[in-house]
User: Fold these one by one.
Assistant:
Number 1:
Amino acid sequence: MKGHEPKMPRMEDILNLPVQDPPCAEFSASHIKWVKVEGGRQGGDDIALIPFARVDDFVKGESSNEECPASFRIESRRKRSEGSISKPRVDGYLEYTLYWCSYGPEDYRDSESVNGDGSNVKPASGKGSRPGRRHMMRGCLCHFTVKRLYTRPLLALIIYNQRKHVDKTGAPCHGILDRDALGTRAMYAPRISEDLRQKVMSMLYVGISLDNIIHHHMELVQGHGGPHNRDDFLTRNDVRNMERVVRNSSHELHADDECSVRMWVQRHQRLVFFFQDYSVSEPFILGIQTDWQLQQMLHYGHNGLVAFHSTFGLKKLKHPLSTLLVFDSSQNATPVAWIITSSLVGQDILKWIVPLAERIRTKDPRWRPNAFLVDDPSFDISSIRENFQCRVLLCIWHVRRAWMRSLMKNCYNVDVQREMFKHLGWALYSSRSVPNALDTVEEFMQVFVDQCAFMDYFKRRWLPYIELWVNGMRSLPVAGPEPLAAIESYHLWLKTKLFNEQNVNFWSRVDWLVHTLTTEFHSLYWYNLYSVETGYFANLRDDSFPTNAWYQALHIPDVNVILDEQNLQLAKVISQADRTLAYTIWNPGSEFSLCDCPWSRLGNLCKHVIKLAILCKNRQVARPLLAAQVYRQSLLTLLQNPPDDPVVLEHATLHATRLQQDIKDLEELSNNGLLQPLPPDVNPQMAVLFQRLH
């Protein structure tokens, strides 16, 4: 009976509808439960609520319709500012966007067959001619509207006005259901996908020729049995158009740098996860992440490490650059987000880290890194831990690098260099076991008081902040050597590409930095990963692209290492290129080891030092890494101050069994004289720890 039919909701009830967030990366209308609305301007249309952050995922999913592949363009867009309406409607919007299938709404099928080029036919929509699109117009009426709700800015109301890809007669007008489209490009999407566009643009930016790109593409198409979609029809003209874009692109959109950056942000909103413009009271902040970077962060960051490389170019760039890095299976660092800010990055980290974390978890709610590495102890650790829901480790790569390079520059006696470097490492790491770590620093300065040049540098650059670092070492576990080498390689590569002399006139402009990062620099990393994963263009890869020392160390055979277990003061590693040459490593097994190879003598972390760290750890023939000792002691200290943060407590619980065995191993090493004794209060704590955790 009619009285028992379900009543359609009115537009006033839309906020009571469930917010739908399909778990897949991209989703379409078939993944959503639609509701027909009664009355109002949208009467009879299908509506649904989704998170506003997932609108792009919906548009991409709708474009991948198997029966009617399409490309939805923005037909019209309107925006309002918050506070502009005193009494907004329930469906009132902050942003209004109309998406229309690119095969419509005009229909040139008949006109072109009658008039040839159809030059005398006026478009039906009144928008004037669409250069380059006339051949695609087949009268498709499929379109939908997206409203970012005024009263609920985090939600988007999708109003699907016409879900079928049909013309005004109701017949299919493109895709496999359209008989007239069979055997033509109208069977497929009208344009190449963003993924292919990114691929071709990256190849062009790294210098691959048009002929090589076309030849490579044809090989791929033939490999999967011929064309199956629009991407397979990539033409030389498509590549020429993109080549023209690359050639004519410029960082300077406006003579004024600030205006130029604003224009870039407006044109590339899809790449910006946070933007705060200059003001009297607020600093400039720009957070950038491309779709490819987001994919890498989701892939390698989940159950992996995410590291901060902060304040690069503090002296040369207008505003320093910070980078978030993830590490692949070879521990090579890949940039997955860039942050440019006019203030110290640690001061305003909460502003941009929240939208970044939301952006990631919108794609994958289960995403969670194993640890987050910070290279500055002044960062807001609690904000990082809360938003990324993982433990936070302190990374000392730039401290080690700065001290080592200064020693090489200011101290000419190699033996003194080794002793000073060893004492500096101990002064930093002893903060966990020495009641007053600053006394150790003071003792170091007195012992080597005659090294005036280095001491002047140390007092000026590091002494004012040494207490901050000591407190950071006491409160945070310390990262091991794996990421140190990868971060250092990224740092050197960034320095090489940005700070060459031909760019010196652009260092003071933020728009140049943004343009360079998102075009040339981004393309280098995309291309390197693509070449490694597929094997294509291996002969064209840039030989200067960094391969970090950790990855290189894994390829040094154990037989090339000469380690006297009775004398652990030094070790030797035989060169793989020249077996008559052996490099000497002093203080092996420590993060503050020194090697006499040319790469290490430049102040870098070399593969020989890391190879010894791996070997010593595996054989347990030298003191475990200082970071490992500090980390174990940090876990034990949890008993004195039980954490309020459940993430930290969960981490301690999960590692309790392994920690028990590790501590037994440490005690055996200590009994053999290979490990400094732990503080006297550790053993009673250890017993209580495992009673509570088990």
Number 2:
Amino acid sequence: MSIDCLHTLNLSDPNLLQSSSHHPLLLRLRQALISCSSSIESGDFQRSDKSIGELVDFLNSVSDAVVSEPDEDSPEHDAFRVVSEIDRYVASPSLDQAVIDALSFELPKAVARFACVSRRCLEIAERVIDRFIEICSPRDMISILCEALDSPSTMFKVPGYFVPLLSGLSKVFVSIQRRQFEQVKAAVPVIVNVLKAVSSELDDGDTDYEDLLTRSIDIAKSVQAVCLKLEDEGKEKLQALLGLYVLEIMAFVSIGLGYKVSSCLSLMSQLAYSLRFCNLSYLGLITGCDVDIIIARCWRTEDGDDHVGCFAHVKHGACLAVIWGFISNEVAQAADEDLAAVKAKLSSDQTKRWQAIGMLRNIFSCVNLPWELKKQAINFLLSIVDGNVSRQYDNEHMECSFDMPSIFATLQAIQMVIIYAPEAEIRRNAFHALKKVLADIPTSMRFDTLTALIKNTDSSSMMAILIDCVREEMRMENCQRISRGNQVIQAQNNSCHSTAFWNDGPLELVGLVLRPPQGGPPSLPEYGDAVLSALNLYRFVLITESTGNTNYTGVLSEKNLQKAYNEWLLPLRTLVTGIVAANQEDYDQLALETLCALNPLELVLYRCIELVEEKLKHVA
């Protein structure tokens, strides 16, 4: 029986026999195993539970000792001896099935802790778990492995602990004989939550994380193999679930390893092949349409199923799948995609382009994503909005209104790239992309979009950039008006574009900056960039309206001139004069920087005051 097998096994291995006579850990382990075997075989459940608990406590004490002294050789050797002894024990062909079944509920979790110790301990831990998978119920093993994944101790919440457990799941999935979709569906959220937790606490240079991602890709291959055994709706639903899982993994690979692009290409090619298997296309992914379809396919029959909440990075993964194809032809070929054709379709189809723009916010707004991938996403965006882009204005307002919330969110995310990107090239390209996306928005909605962006940013520099965009739009519109002999500009749908920017909106925007909603003049020098841009906008409007003998904005009305003079310009002059006087007597670096920052603002301010005073004389 099992006890005899244990003794025979020990004596048949000379190396083990030599170590057993000198090492107390192995003697204690054998005693614990003998106790477990005898109590289980006798049917004494109370005693067997106690024996198994003591065995687990002993194993945990050994693995804890190694983790607490990671630089010591002796604890690692002890751990290796102990986990090797467990391997020999469970590998015995004469071990009673009842003993294996009882130990299978606790030992996978206990031996997984040894995987954190060293590479050789990991290999043996995987072998022990594989043994349980070979001779225990697949359904039981899925539950056991998921429970172990879901409840690691704080000390072992590291990639190494999860690697053998994920490896075990990839092998047990192919053994499922019935209700495959339901069982995989129950396990996938556990796996995804593990990857999410590990990626959020990842240390730089953690090599175990790549092993973990490799095992997670093995799971995708395993599910793919299960799909091949199914037909009709069962296959369709499992393929959809596999697609969601693969997109999540793509996001985790990008977040954890995306800073070293070359090392990700092999992993991404494998994942791209799985996307191809799931019938997911680059066009469907970048527009979000395929994502919506597979989510609905997985959860269309269940009410109140909250597992979909674990797929928080699916849309990130959908965008990243395309960006990796944009980075590497190898990845695009694995997905069987022609990226040039995808970009051409997006450039020619305005609705799909708007959908893609809205989806890309997931990349630009992800704080954990490496800048290299955001840089590539900006370049991809430029490739579909720059150059020969088709813009069809039939029902433009209605169609764009539907996509506008997501486009607006993308514009806000691009702003963050402009503000925080570490490289000048990324910031420059992001600004170019911002202007191109704005140009893709119907003119009738563009001013409101810019105003909303200005109102929703705290960055003075970003406000200045956006106000300058407003001024540039007004300049171009004015040039069009002049070139057409001051005739009303007609768009393709005969809607009037001449009043898109030349109305009272720009004056309200200037007032928003020069007299903030909280009252009083703006804070200087903190908001100096925004104030300078607002003054330049006001000066431009005032001069342009005066020169053209027009008053589209109402800037030349006596009421608005008095308001600008008394509520905006004079209070601002008082503030600037006071700050300059206070800093002129100081010679420290801060005072000099303040004076330099206010100098151009002061010049434009006084020019605006002169212009308004001149106009007020004529009005009077």
